[in-house]
Design brief:
Helix content is 42%, strand content 21%. It folds into 2 domains: 354 residues, Kinesin motor domain (Kinesin, 3-Layer(aba) Sandwich), CATH 3.40.850.10; 137 residues, no CATH class. Helix 13 packs antiparallel against helix 14. The chain is of the alpha+beta class and 532 residues long. The longest helix is centred in the C-terminal third of the chain and has 33 residues. The structure holds adenosine-5'-triphosphate and magnesium ion. Magnesium ion (MG) binds next to helix 2.
Length: 532
């Protein structure tokens, strides 16, 4: 049974269930179902000694087979889903691989159980119900981000076909792309040419199921009007991760409808049906060989003998939680096959699988996360060491710096500082801004100097800084700078006035109009007024 070996690993035998197909025959004396919890579930056959159909029973009349649970004729599709498929779907959502396969003779209800019946909506089987369950969970679970893909593989007459090929509208089987199996160095199989289609929601997934089913190989046989003549593996690939995390969980769910075992003479087969039956029986024989080898823990397991066992390698004794549904018919004519199905199931129940939590770091997401971390560490390091960063300043950063410089210049507090951290690029940028301001001031100064020179005709030059006070439009809100400039300017003017008076007195000539000499000071005063 189930047991956690090490963290993330579940060792578990393959779970076996049985489902009895409804029949109109009186069968109450032929078999009985017991689902007693204490004693364990079982189905028991009572085989009369005089049973026809060539079956002679010399020794035993009662055959009892144990199962995890036996579903009798009245069991509905929902009950089957809830008991068998839902727990598997839950584990697939948790990151484990899962397989559910139906095994039984032809016409015993495998396709009805796995895919469902077409007559009523309530007849839908495990695949559509599981898809609905998975997508409901995916929509509701806000803690995880999932992506889902689907493939549908058919193995017919020992050739693999891709049932989801969209190129062909009404196609024959031989037109479908064939899929080949490759083994890598670790003996994992790769299915070449099998399309794996993304399906974002339940509707898309169901469309893929219907597309595949229209391509499936079916035929009318004596026992089943729509006998599926191939093994089909419908696979859901789930990839889930928490938002922002680089750890992803990838799991696969195989839902397998095997072709039915059939007795060639009983079916009166010929031609193509006979060829199909032979291939079906051979592949089921190889499946049995694999099951026997696994149940007896043999050193060599002959997976490679058939395509079906190669594809299902992980499901049988590997990294997977596997469940088998034995479909049985209790019509008297089918008892022998039903018992052989049950016997096969008993062997299957001995197989131990070791399912591993398929969790790994996604390299692409991991690189993105490491890049982010790297950048933040670089920033931190640059803060500590003052090392320059490599990237250019962004437009946004430049604009913020301009505002910062303007606020700094506007600040009347002589202790005001420009908080730039250790980022040399920002420091350089601020110096460049200040330089632009100063050179602008100088230009203004030159213009004013020229004008003043013309007006007083002295040709005397002002110091560059004092000239800035005459340029009120240049940095109108820069009180601090202008305050300094004005004081200096007034000082200069005072000195110049004194020099000029002295000069006039010496020369004894007419005193020049005072408004001319006061002009720079008047400008300074005007400037101060504007500031106020
Ligand atoms: N539990 C059930 N309830 C009602 N009808 C069922 C049930 N099981 C099977 N049937 C009906 O029996 C017929 C044969 O079933 P199905 O096609 O599923 O058999 P099968 O095992 O897939 O056979 P094959 O191996 O030939 O493909 C179908 O018409 C199906 O609808
Ligand atoms: Mg079928």
């Amino acid at each position: 049974m189930a047991g956690m070996a090490e963290k993330g690993t579940v060792k578990e035998t393959i779970q076996i269930f049985a489902r009895v197909k409804p029949t109109r025959e009186e069968t109450s004396k032929v078999y009985s179902v017991n689902n007693d919890e204490a004693a364990g579930a079982s189905v028991e056959f009572v085989v009369p000694k005089d049973l026809g159909d060539g079956y002679v029973n010399n020794k035993l009349e009662n055959y009892k087979f144990r199962f995890r649970r036996v579903f009798d004729q009245t069991a509905g599709q929902e009950e089957i889903f809830e008991t068998i498929a839902q727990p598997v779907a839950d584990r697939v959502l948790a990151g484990y691989n899962g397989t559910i396969f139906a095994y039984g003779q032809t016409n015993s209800g495998k396709t009805f159980t796995i895919t469902g019946g077409a007559r009523r909506y309530g007849d839908r089987g495990i695949i559509p119900r599981t898809l609905s369950y998975l997508y409901q969970h995916i929509i509701q679970d806000s803690t995880m981000v999932y992506t889902t893909h689907i493939s549908y593989l058919e193995i017919y007459n020992n050739v693999c076909y891709d049932l989801l090929d969209r190129q062909l509208e009404a196609c024959r089987l031989e037109d479908l792309p064939t899929v080949t199996i490759m083994h890598d160095s670790e003996q994992n199989i790769q299915l070449r040419n099998l399309s794996i289609q993304q399906s974002a929601n339940e509707e898309e997934a169901l469309n893929l199921l219907f597309l595949g089913d229209t391509h499936r190989m079916t035929a009318e046989t004596l026992l089943n009007k729509a006998s599926t003549r191939s093994h089909c593996i419908f696979t859901v690939y789930l990839c889930g991760r928490q938002p922002g995390s680089a750890t992803v969980r990838r799991s696969k769910l195989h839902l397998v409808d095997l072709a039915g075992s059939e007795r060639v003479n009983k079916m009166a087969l010929g031609g193509q049906l006979l060829t199909e039956a032979k291939y079906i029986n051979v592949s089921l024989h190889y499946l049995e060989q694999v099951i026997i080898s696994l149940s007896e823990s043999r050193a060599h397991i002959p997976y490679r003998n058939s395509l079906m066992t190669s594809v299902l390698r992980d499901s049988l004794g590997g990294n997977c939680m596997t469940t088998m549904i034995s479909t049985i018919s209790v019509d008297k004519a089918n008892l022998k096959e039903s018992m052989s199905t049950c016997r096969f199931a008993q062997r299957v129940a001995l197989i131990k699988n070791e399912a591993v939590l398929n969790e790994e770091e996604d390299p692409v997401l991991l690189i993105a996360r490491l890049k982010r971390e790297n950048q933040s560490l670089r920033d931190e390091l640059a803060m500590v060491t003052g090392e320059p960063r490599q990237e250019q300043l962004t437009q946004d950063e430049i604009q913020k710096l301009e505002v910062q410089v303007k606020d700094f210049l506007d600040d009347t507090d002589p202790e005001a500082t420009l908080a730039l951290g250790t980022d040399l690029q920002k420091i350089h940028r601020c110096f460049a801004l200040l330089k632009t301001i100063v050179s602008g001031l100088r230009q203004q100064l030159n213009i004013i100097q020229e004008k003043l020179g013309c007006a007083n005709g002295t040709g005397n030059e002002l110091t560059p800084l004092s000239a800035a006070a005459t340029a009120p439009d240049f940095i109108p809100s820069n009180r601090a700078v202008r305050g300094i400039l004005i004081s200096e300017k007034e000082e200069t003017e005072k000195t110049r006035d004194q020099d000029t008076t002295a000069q006039l007195n010496v020369n004894g000539g007419p005193v020049r109009a005072p408004n001319v000499r006061r002009c720079p000071v008047a400008l300074g005063l005007k400037l101060r007024k504007m500031e106020d």
